[in-house]
Design brief:
The protein has helices at about 5, 10-15, 45-50, 65-75, 90-100, 115-125, 165-175, 195-210, 220, 250-260, 270-280, 285-305, 325-335, 360-375, and strands at about 30, 85, 105-110, 130, 150-155, 180-185, 225-230, 245-250, 310, 320-325, 340, 350-355. The chain has about 375 residues and is an alpha/beta fold.
Length: about 375
């Protein structure tokens, strides 16, 4: 009996799973390959977990994460009905793919972006049309028109580049037939505004529309009904180990996500995760402090790589993407010194390395290792 042929479904046989960054199990590594936050979570997170009523673990958690939704809504300036919480932004994205794109064609996404998107496309029968990035890895908004849906990571990964709010506005205007999903896993590290600003405005416009005559068309509000923003606590809030993500959108979109969730897993977030994430979202001073530290370290690291002759893309994330004449060789050199970066042997990325921003100590070790490799080469990188 051939196990693969006899037991697996045809869909599973055709899947090419997402390949996550290497997770070493032994100590001594400088881990710069999975874009984790180098700093611990807010002290209030520790307090929330410590003070949790452990006896309540015998009960199922709140399936709608109501308290967490209220806290996120208060932080973002929207209503709780605009928020959906799930077990990581990966789960929220997967539910969104099922709710809004499953079985549809002409769903647009960049050809270089988060590696999970094409996997979910195959899993949920989504016919993607991958739009090539420009030569500088930027997104050409003019190529995203009249689609049945658009999926954009903003800032994008692994390129680290970001679109401005006016570009997201154009995406919405050009694609009224389907949901425009903006994956903002890294937006807290960017100097562009979150697309949530459009939702906050649309909510205000909705209130105005309700007070007007039914014959008055509020085009401003109608324009944003199809916007879904997905965010995570894994990066800026340093809670990758708890797996908490959320979506922000029109209540009708949120209801669709809940419908799919309840057909899959009624209780996606455990009690401790809800308590910890609520504490994290309520400690904005700590969030802003750690983001400032990461951005400062990013700037110093970029400057030192540029001084060695490397081309570094203008990062809006907690990682950088830079070009090297022998990226794979440099990757292996770093690996031999127990420094983990990310390398893709693909046509357009084979000359680049992606490096997460760690602590200043982490990045000093990384820079010293790059300098050692660069000095040993006969030609200065350009």
């Amino acid at each position: 009996m051939d196990f693969t042929n006899d037991y697996l479904s045809d869909k599973v046989k055709r899947l090419s799973p997402y390949v996550a960054g290497l997770q070493p199990r032994d100590a001594g590594w400088v881990k710069l390959n999975t874009n984790e936050n180098p700093y611990p979570p807010s002290p209030k997170v520790c307090e929330a977990i410590k003070n949790a009523d452990i006896a309540r673990l015998r009960l199922y958690p709140d399936g709608d994460s109501a308290a967490l939704c209220e806290a996120i809504a208060a932080d973002l300036g929207v209503n709780a009905e605009n928020i959906f919480c799930g077990n990581s932004s990966d789960e929220v994205l997967a539910l969104a793919f099922q709710a809004f794109y499953s079985g549809k064609d002409n769903i647009l996404a960049p050809d270089i972006s988060y590696g999970f998107y094409p996997v979910w496309g195959k899993m949920y029968d989504v016919e993607f049309r991958r739009i090539p990035l420009r030569g500088d890895f930027s997104i050409n908004i003019d190529e995203y028109k009249d689609a049945n849906g658009v999926v954009i990571a903003n800032p994008n990964a692994p390129t680290s580049l970001a679109l401005g709010l006016s570009d997201i506005d154009r995406l919405l205007c050009q694609n009224p037939k389907g949901v425009v999903l903006v994956d903002e896993a890294y937006v807290d590290f960017a100097d562009v505004e979150s697309a949530v600003e459009l939702l906050a405005q649309s909510g205000e416009a909705a209130g105005q529309a309700e007070s007007c005559s039914a014959r008055v068309e509020n085009r401003f509000y109608q324009k944003y009904l199809n916007l879904l923003v997905v965010r995570t606590f894994s990066k800026s809030h340093a809670l990758a180990g708890l797996r908490v993500g959320y979506a922000v959108g029109h209540p009708k979109l949120i209801e669709a996500l809940k419908r799919v969730k309840d057909a899959f897993n009624s209780y996606p977030l455990d009690m401790l995760a809800q308590a910890a994430a609520t504490a994290a979202i309520q400690d904005r001073p700590y969030l802003e402090k750690t983001i400032k530290e990461v951005v400062a370290t990013r700037s110093r690291t970029t400057a030192r790589l540029q001084a060695m002759g490397y081309h570094v893309l203008h990062s809006q994330t907690n990682f950088i993407l830079f070009k090297a004449p022998d990226a794979e060789g440099l990757y292996n050199h770093l690996l031999s010194h127990k420094i983990l970066a990310r390398y893709w042997n693909t046509p357009r990325l084979k000359d680049y390395l992606r490096v997460s921003i760690g602590t200043n100590t982490d990045m000093e070790a990384f820079i010293q290792c790059v300098q050692e490799y660069t000095s040993a080469r006969p030609m200065r990188p350009i």
